[in-house]
Amino acid sequence: MNIHEYQAKALLREYGAPVSDGRVVTKAEEAKTAAGELDGPLWVVKAQIHAGGRGKGSFKEADAGEKGGVRLAKSVEEAAEEAKKMLGRTLVTHQTGPAGKQVNRIYFEDGSDISRELYLALLVDRQTSRISFVCSTEGGMDIEEVAASTPEKILSFDVDPATGYQPFHGRRVAFTLGLEGQAMKQCVKLMGILYKAFVEKDMEQLEINPLIVTEAGDLKVLDAKVGFDGNALYRHQDIASLRDETEEDSKELQASKYDLNYIALEGEIGCMVNGAGLAMATMDIIKLKGAEPANFLDVGGGATKEKVTEAFKIITSDKNVKGILVNIFGGIMRCDVIAEGVIAAVKEVGLQVPLVVRLEGTNVEKGREIINQSGLDVIAASDLNDAAEKIVKAVKG
User: Which residues bind ATP (predicted)?
Assistant: First the structure.
């Protein structure tokens, strides 16, 4: 689960991280009052969406020469006016894709005197199963671009969970970033703060880009992007309450309510599969046959008729779907339960696109019998290769 920048900074402030004072608004009429609560003389006006690249982004139907989603203002009135220009409009960045995201929140923040911009992140290293620090002197840039062009400017190391964070970890970051004097001492302390927050709140990612050195020589968190392990949210009701459902795909949100593993994609063939590995293989073979999957959907090993019905409804709600492939290998999951769910869903929402069903495993004969006696226009497949060929042919002709 991701949260907005202003929420991330509020959380880090609780742990003692140095962040600027700020205010958030959701309505244009609140803008002037909120901006007036900050001292100035410089106000930073930031669009709040779950995507990076806001400063370099652009609004749909923007006026010629209009600024991106991060703007500077030199008075309360100017800050309020900039906020009104952004609220309710769609911001497009390299991370949102062409569809963009609607700006429903604006964050006002005190301006900072910047001497240097640095990059810092903590994340879970999947190879070592440890928390890793990633840092670079190239702050303010896309880390992917830095990694591609100047990888020697990035330091990455993990922390042994047996010892946890130690001051030498912070000094290693400080040396890499070229920090000296008070900034080095602050770095050692700040790295400990961030590591503690990361562990205690079950974060998956904590990215600060940029981490700045001010003209006075102090470190400050100028931006913050935080993501949490969704499987651990039951331990953190305070974090779960920060969830902004307007930033999430409506189909993925609906799927989560039924404990379905669903990720929306941009293809034309909807997939309903049991098991993540089989789901990946199904998506791969669809691409191999010349089409694109519209989603990843794992109904799980213990799916009920109701869950299968809901999964089918979610797939058909995607306007890009031109055909559906149901691929079930029944181990714990019974083929007859899948068949009953598919039939119930089709009767409820209708069937407007071709449907190919491949069943194998537990109660497969019973499942096939249910499908065959349903009277529905369903295309049966003998194996995965046959199923992929048939659905691609039905969609593409």
Answer: 46, 53-55, 109, 112, 117
pLDDT in tens, the chain (397 residues): 999 999 999 999 999 999 999 999 999 999 999 999 998 899 999 999 998 888 888 888 666 457 789 999 999 999 999 999 999 999 998 888 888 899 999 999 999 999 999 999 999 999 999 999 999 999 877 788 888 888 888 999 999 999 999 999 999 999 999 999 999 999 999 999 999 999 999 999 999 999 999 999 999 999 999 999 988 999 999 999 999 988 887 888 888 887 888 998 989 999 999 888 999 999 999 999 999 999 999 887 666 777 778 888 899 888 899 999 989 887 777 888 878 878 887 888 778 899 998 888 888 888 888 888 888 788 888 889 999 999 999 998 7
- pTM (predicted TM-score): 0.80
Domain boundaries, the chain: 21-110, 114-240, 250-396
What are the tokens at 161? 């969970």
Residue pair 285/388 in contact (Cβ under 8 Å)? The answer is yes
Binding site per annotation, positions for ATP: 46, 53-55, 109, 112, 117
The answer to whether 114-240 and 250-396 have equal CATH topology is: no
313's tokens: 């409804």
Rounded to 10°, the helix 305-316/250-257 angle is 180
To which H or E segment does residue 184 belong?
helix 181-200
Instruction: Enumerate the known binding-site residues for Mg(2+).
Output: 209, 223
- Max CA separation in the chain (angstroms): 79
Specify the amino acid at residue 61. Answer: E
Q: Any idea which architecture 21-110 has in CATH? A: 2-Layer Sandwich (3.30)
The helix or strand, by DSSP H or E, that contains position 174, with its residue range, turns out to be helix 167-177
| Choices 2.60.40.10, 3.30.470.20, 3.40.50.620, 3.40.1160.10: CATH for 114-240 | 3.30.470.20
CA dist 276 → 184, 272, 283, 301 (Å): 45, 11, 11, 10
Active-site residue list: 119, 207
User: What's 250-396's CATH class?
Assistant: alpha beta
